[in-house]
Recover the amino acids of this structure.
């Protein structure tokens, strides 16, 4: 089974709900990993078989790694990777083409031409008792392109993030993937979302480097 | 408290303040006209509308004498086919820089948002909106430009590489480079730019030079969702361009020294113009309507086509004719213009207020006007302007003024 240009969101794999759709999927796929740092994989394809597991080619894994007693954000290209044991994946979801088109429009908005592009991937915020990172004050009232964030049990991928005068991040033109109260996976597009650090469980915000996306 | 209002007196007073309901007798492509065609011409509009909706490429001649309402027909067409991009160009005034003039008119009519949409779609076709890793738009302008060049150079073999590069650079920089977007937008809108401004965009010419405007027109029209109608007035110019010259002007330079005695500079200019019109015919989705003053001109134009490009002769359709007004048309024209006038002075109720529906004139005068003008719309409007001017400026009472027109033949 090959699925592409889907008009609905398709939950390909969900470890919580026991969903496992075998086949080959193409489009915009978010895979959330079950590891220490809740890393996320963005890919335009995913193959899943009961015997061999999940296979991703040409994807981008985003997360944190511990190097010399410091946690550093990374975004790393996955050439081809098998995830044989389904244990390491929490879910994989194929976003509908309709939502992606709305998301694209936001990405090509010319209302904010002077948004900062970071060349390399870096952490803007990490909520960690031992290795915590907080550069929000430094970027106060600035606008940064390509943020990826983990807030509570949801993933936010946005066109840009603005750090407001209260040093809270405001995400613009964002896709949100999360679970509702029944644990079902949902996807939505929001023109903007204000995330108050004091009230919400922001785990991390990573700014993807433009040069690393070009790889 | 108003017990009685003399509406006739009020209307006459308003007119006497200098408000002539009939202001102009020559329609132009610049000033919008809201008055629709008279009943006898509605059929003509319907036929053109049918043609525009059924055919995507054609050349339609419309023949009508001087003052028969050819330019007014453009406005009626534009009002009726408002969902098309309708461009007006008169070869009487514009025959140099034809493409860039048509482009300016096209952009003015299209407006900014649809223009942005079309160029965005073009960039999408050239691979600019490709999603890396399924989500991220990583803009690689050079890659997009290279791909666009490969695509367009195969498609438009007749266009020079320099022109292709300029157009591709202008469009891609506008869409994909936020730091140079404003300058690129000026270029896209057809503004004149100096060499320094152009060099920051890696461009050689603005849209007034070379074939840049032609290629932009081709790309925009062929990729526009709504169809385009080009209305060319005074099309006879492609047969011969003769600028009025003073008889007393001293002959300093004899063009035959340069061009020989067989062809004049005007002939060469007319030929160039003809070539440009032929190029316009190659734009898919462009419907061309042109006006001529006589059947003979159409014969000449067909002859020119059969001599130079016989394969395009079949694009020229059988002509439609703009006939002179019928008597009823004069009454209709008068009533509709007066209604517009009443609306403009906030007295719409005047349209039905008088026993004589043609007040301050009357049916007899309108009939006389029709006969004197021999049904020619411009001559009719000229006469109406004259009568109203007389009402405005003369010290005689209105009855005395009108009596002259009732009796004149």
């Amino acid at each position: 089974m090959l699925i592409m240009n889907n008009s609905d969101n398709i939950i390909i794999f969900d470890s919580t709900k026991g969903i496992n759709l075998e086949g080959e999927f193409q489009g915009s796929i978010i895979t959330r990993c079950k590891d220490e740092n809740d890393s996320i994989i963005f890919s335009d394809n995913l193959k899943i078989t009961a015997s061999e597991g999940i296979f991703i080619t040409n994807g981008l894994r985003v997360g944190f790694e511990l190097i010399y007693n410091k946690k550093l954000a990374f975004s790393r290209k996955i050439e081809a990777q098998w995830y044989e044991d389904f244990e390491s994946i929490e879910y994989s979801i194929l976003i509908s083409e309709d939502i992606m088109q709305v998301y694209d429009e936001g990405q090509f908005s010319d209302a904010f031409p002077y948004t900062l592009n970071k060349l390399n991937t870096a952490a803007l915020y990490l909520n960690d008792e031992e290795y915590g990172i907080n550069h929000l004050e430094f970027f106060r009232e600035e606008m940064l392109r390509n943020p990826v964030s983990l807030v509570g049990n949801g993933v936010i991928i946005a066109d840009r993030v603005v750090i407001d005068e209260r040093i809270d991040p405001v995400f613009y033109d964002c896709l949100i993937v999360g679970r509702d109260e029944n644990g079902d996976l949902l996807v939505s597009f929001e023109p903007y979302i204000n995330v108050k650090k004091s009230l919400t469980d922001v785990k991390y915000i990573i700014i993807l480097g433009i040069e690393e996306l070009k790889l | 408290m108003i017990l009685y209002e003399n509406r006739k007196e009020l209307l006459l007073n308003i007119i006497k303040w200098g408000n002539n309901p009939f202001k102009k007798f020559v329609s132009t492509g610049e000033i919008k006209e809201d008055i629709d065609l008279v009943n006898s011409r509605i059929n003509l509009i319907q036929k053109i509308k049918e043609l525009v909706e059924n055919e995507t490429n054609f050349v339609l001649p419309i023949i009508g004498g001087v003052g028969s309402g050819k330019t007014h027909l453009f406005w009626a067409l534009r009002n009726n086919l408002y969902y098309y991009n309708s461009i007006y160009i008169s070869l009487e005034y514009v025959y140099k820089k034809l493409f860039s003039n048509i482009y300016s008119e096209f952009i003015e009519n299209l407006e900014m948002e649809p223009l942005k949409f079309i160029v965005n779609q073009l960039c999408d076709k050239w691979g600019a909106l490709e999603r890396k890793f399924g989500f991220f738009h990583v803009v690689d302008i050079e890659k997009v430009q290279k791909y666009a060049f490969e695509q367009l150079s195969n498609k438009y073999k007749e266009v020079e590489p320099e022109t292709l590069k300029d157009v591709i650079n202008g469009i891609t920089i506008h869409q994909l480079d936020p730091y140079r977007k404003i300058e690129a937008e000026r270029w896209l809108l057809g503004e004149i730019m100096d060499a320094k401004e152009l060099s920051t965009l890696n461009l050689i010419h603005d849209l007034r030079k070379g074939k840049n405007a032609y290629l932009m027109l081709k790309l925009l029209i062929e990729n526009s969702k709504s169809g385009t109608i080009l209305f060319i007035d005074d099309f006879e110019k492609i047969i011969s361009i003769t600028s009025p010259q003073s008889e007393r002007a001293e002959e300093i330079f004899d063009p035959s020294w340069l061009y020989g005695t067989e062809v004049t500079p005007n002939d060469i200019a007319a030929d160039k113009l003809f070539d440009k019109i032929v190029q316009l015919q190659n734009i898919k989705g462009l419907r061309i309507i042109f006006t001529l003053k006589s059947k003979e001109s159409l014969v000449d134009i067909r002859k020119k086509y059969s001599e130079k490009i016989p394969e395009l002769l079949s694009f020229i359709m059988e002509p439609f004719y703009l006939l002179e007004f019928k008597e009823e048309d004069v009454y209709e024209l008068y009533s509709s213009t007066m209604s517009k006038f009443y609306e403009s002075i906030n007295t719409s109720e005047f349209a039905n207020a008088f026993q004589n529906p043609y007040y301050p004139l009357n049916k007899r005068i309108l009939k006389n006007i029709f006969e004197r003008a021999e049904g020619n719309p411009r001559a009719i409007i000229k006469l109406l302007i004259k009568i109203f001017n007389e009402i405005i400026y003369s010290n005689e009472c209105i009855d005395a003024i009108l009596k002259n027109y009732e009796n004149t033949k």
